[in-house]
Specification:
conserved putative lor/sdh protein from methanococcus maripaludis s2 fold, 4-stranded antiparallel β-sheet, 399 residues, Elongation Factor Tu (Ef-tu), domain 3, alpha+beta
């Protein structure tokens, strides 16, 4: 009996505890909790809008030196990083074949001139024979056919003279071409500058039959460089020529460099359905710290205002939760125009809207102005998500 009584008491206690948990779960309501907010302040200062892009550094003037003649590289008089003057011999293609061609063309010219001299003698002889036959014909001492033969010989000699004159001109042209090819076997520096690339070695054969092979790349002046940066079409309307640009390179991550936007090229570059425009930024490189080919992270300053009021961007994007009817009524009361927005302050009655004019906007801040705002005013940035008044707590709790 005693054991059964203990079991009975344990069962009753378990039922009471279970009933208590169920009662607290179903009937206990959470006390109303006031909404909580994250605040920011209206500050005063400068605001700058910028366009970010990347580009590649290159010399302002860079010339690729090629060869119009084919052959084997006999010697090289320039190498990487060497300074050269305009007219310096920087490479020589083996010239023996070109010299032999010049000699052959010169011999052909001499032969053509000798043939021309012979044609001139033949023409003079035909002329004398024609004149003699004309006198004899007047005296009826020769026949008409003999007179015709002498006239034919004279005219034939005239034509032959013209043919030989053309052959002389042709021989002169081929000789000049051979001389040009011989001259092209010697490669000269086209500008004053520094060799930044050498693409051939002694003994290498270059073939210029289809296109001129590049032998050297010469930069005229490394103290003046440029950045070729591509700007998305969405931001191209924000930039103008002569705007200031700042950039950094991986070699000097802590050192800012400056430049000036000098040209916005009109030729679009479409890649994966994204249209971009090539923008040229001129850079001063007097200390030669910047090298051709470096990647530059560029910031183009598009607009700047000083001593203005500004708020974090989340302040102009914040909107408290409210019924749709109240939201429509608020919109009608505020009558927001273009470039206008709303910021919210907190009063005893809850969030209160303030109509402001919107100015420049960056990734983090927005310029605001209006008669009802002032510096250091506290504004709502966002509302902390909490439990609404009257909402039941989920789960079991004793407190």
């Amino acid at each position: 009996m005693l054991a059964n009584k203990k079991i009975y008491l344990w069962i009753v206690a378990l039922i009471i505890i279970t009933a208590l948990f169920v009662f607290m779960l179903l009937d206990r309501e959470q006390k109303p909790v006031a909404p909580q907010y994250t605040f920011g302040r209206i500050t005063s200062g400068d605001i700058t809008t910028e366009v970010l892009t990347t580009g590649t550094l290159s010399p302002l003037i860079m010339v690729q030196v090629g060869s119009q003649a084919s052959g084997t590289i006999q010697s090289l008089n320039a190498d990487f990083n060497k300074h050269v003057k305009k007219g310096d011999v920087i490479a020589q293609i083996e010239p023996s074949l070109f010299r032999a061609t010049v000699a052959q063309r010169a011999a052909n010219l001499q032969s053509a001139r000798a043939a021309l001299d012979k044609a001139q003698v033949t023409l003079r002889d035909a002329k004398r024979q024609l004149d003699r036959n004309k006198r004899l014909r007047k005296q009826n001492m020769i026949s008409e056919s003999e007179m015709d033969d002498s006239l034919f010989n004279y005219e034939q000699a005239e034509v032959e003279l013209k043919v030989q004159q053309a052959k002389v001109a042709e021989a002169q042209a081929t000789l000049q071409l051979a001389q040009v090819n011989l001259a092209n076997a010697t490669i000269y520096a086209p500008i004053d500058g520094i060799v930044i690339s050498r693409d051939v070695d002694v003994g290498q054969t270059v073939a210029a039959s289809l296109q001129a092979p590049t032998l050297f790349t010469i930069a005229q002046d490394l103290t003046r460089m440029q950045i070729e940066a591509y700007v998305d079409e969405a931001y191209i309307g924000m930039i103008r020529e002569n705007q200031e640009a700042q950039f950094t390179v991986y070699a000097y991550p802590e050192r800012p460099f400056t430049g000036k936007l000098i040209q916005i090229r009109l030729n679009p570059d479409a890649e994966e359905d994204v249209v971009k425009y090539n923008c040229i930024i001129q850079v001063d490189n007097k200390d030669l710290s910047l090298k051709p080919g470096m990647t530059a992270t560029v910031t183009i300053k598009t607009n700047e205002k000083q001593n203005v009021l500004k708020v974090p961007n989340s302040a102009v994007r914040y909107l408290p939760e409210m019924p749709l009817d109240d939201l429509s009524k608020l919109r009608k009361e505020l009558q927001l125009g273009q470039d206008q927005g709303v910021i919210w302050t907190l009063s005893d009655a809850g969030p209160q809207p303030i109509k402001v004019d919107i100015g420049l906007s960056t990734e983090s801040e927005t310029e605001v102005s209006g008669k009802n705002i002032q510096e250091n005013m506290k504004v709502i940035l966002k509302e902390k998500k909490g439990k609404k008044p009257g909402q039941r707590k989920m789960g079991l709790t004793l407190f």
